[in-house]
Amino acid sequence: MSSTDPSSVDPAPDELPANRPFAVGDGSRVVRGSAVKEFPLGDAEMLLFHEGRQVVHTLNTSAWAVWDLCDGTRTVADIARELSSAVGHPVDAVLADVHAVIGQLGTLALLELV
User: Fold this and answer.
1) Strand (E) positions, the chain?
2) What pLDDT, in 10s, does the model give residues 52-65?
3) DSSP per residue over 40-60, as a string?
4) Does 17 reside within a domain?
5) How many C-beta atoms surround the C-beta of residue 57 within 10 A?
6) What's the burial of 77, exposed, middle or buried (CB within 10 Å: 0-12/13-18/19+)?
7) How far apart (Å, rounded) are the C-alpha atoms in residues 62 and 65?
8) Residue 100 falls within a domain, yes or no?
9) Would residue 36 count as lying in a domain?
C-alpha cells in the first residue's frame, strides 16, 4: 500500500463539514455511513455519493481498500494488519495510512463510529 496523501479522498473544498473532528484509536470500529452510496469506477476508483448532503467524493485504490474494510466488525488495527498482509508493507506504516484515510472519511461524514 503506497503512502496515502490527502488526494486519496477528493472532496470539493467548500463541502468540508465545519468542526466535525473524527478521531479514532487503534481499537475503534468504524462503519460506512448509511446515507452513502457506492459506485465503482473501473478497478482504480470508487465514487461515493452522500445522499443526505448531496455531495460526491472519489477514492483512489488505497483509500478504497480501507473503505471496503470499514464494515463495523474490524478495528482500525485489524484493517491495518489485513492490508499490511495483503501488500507486504510493515504494519506500523500501513496503520498510519489507515488512520489518515479513516480520519478524512469520518470528517467528511462518510464513516461513523460503531
Assistant:
1) 29-32, 36-41, 45-50, 55-59, 71-75, 111-113
2) 989 999 999 999 99
3) EETTTEEEEEETTTTEEEEE-
4) no
5) 20
6) middle
7) 5
8) yes
9) yes
Q: Cell 463541502, residue? A: 15
Q: Is 58 within 8 Å of 10 (Cβ atoms)?
A: yes
Specify the pairing of strand 71-75 against strand 29-32.
antiparallel
The residue written with cell numbers 461515493 in the block is 48
d(CA 47, CA 39): 5
Query: Could you tell me how many residues make up the chain?
Result: 114
**Domain span holding position 40:** 27-113
Residue 14 falls inside a structural domain: no
User: pLDDT digits over 63-72, tens only?
Assistant: 999 999 999 9
Task: Assign residue 35 the CATH number of its domain.
Answer: 3.90.930.60
Distance CA 25, CA 28 (A): 5
CA angle 15, 16, 18 (to 5 degrees): 120
